[in-house]
Design a protein that fits this description.
The chain is built from four helices and 14 strands. By secondary structure, the protein is of the alpha+beta class. It has one domain: Sandwich (Jelly Rolls), CATH 2.60.120.10.
Length: about 170
């Protein structure tokens, strides 16, 4: 890992994330959602929102996973990301997250609840990492996080098997 990446990990006090990369929770709402719909969907109350820093170093990927909540990604620094989305309705798309200095690249994106997704650095000569912020609502809880196996996605998206293999 290059020295600049290590400096960011140390500066932001990031820890390894189960999906790959490094993270640190920077905010969790003091308020909880405990309405009947939330209790039914999530099996208990959830914070209204949570937010993390997430750093993906060169050579690592954000492995395919799924959340029960919506997740907004915000680009902060480094190399742009390709975020691969495998939607529940069978639609696949890849979005670029980064400074809007190239066509089809946006500084923020939404991953809808229930979408299988993962991310990887776009090729380039920029920094050897990407630093983003991720805000989840209702708030993130590891009980709502599911790592996805290659087999779970490959059958539904055989035309994207190369992406599935890279991200599992």
């Amino acid at each position: 890992m290059n020295p600049e990446t290590l400096r960011w990990i140390e500066r932001l006090q990031l820890a390894p994330h189960p999906e790959g990369g490094y993270y640190c929770e920077i905010y969790h709402s003091p308020r909880y959602l405990s309405d009947p719909a939330t209790l039914t969907a999530y099996g208990g109350p959830r914070r209204t929102a949570t937010s993390i820093y997430f750093l993906l170093p060169e050579g690592d990927v954000s492995r395919l996973h799924r959340l029960r909540s919506d997740e907004l990604w915000y680009f902060h620094h480094g190399r742009p990301l390709a975020v691969h989305l495998f939607h529940p309705n069978g639609h696949y798309e890849v979005k670029q997250l980064g400074l809007p200095d190239a066509p089809d690249r946006e500084p923020q994106l939404l991953v809808p609840a229930g979408t299988i997704f993962g991310a990887e650095l776009l090729p380039g000569a920029q920094a050897g990492f990407s630093l983003v912020g991720c805000m989840v609502t209702p708030g993130f809880d590891f009980r709502d996080f599911e790592l996805i196996s290659q087999e779970e996605v490959a059958d539904r998206f055989p035309e994207h098997l190369d992406v599935v293999r890279r991200l599992t």
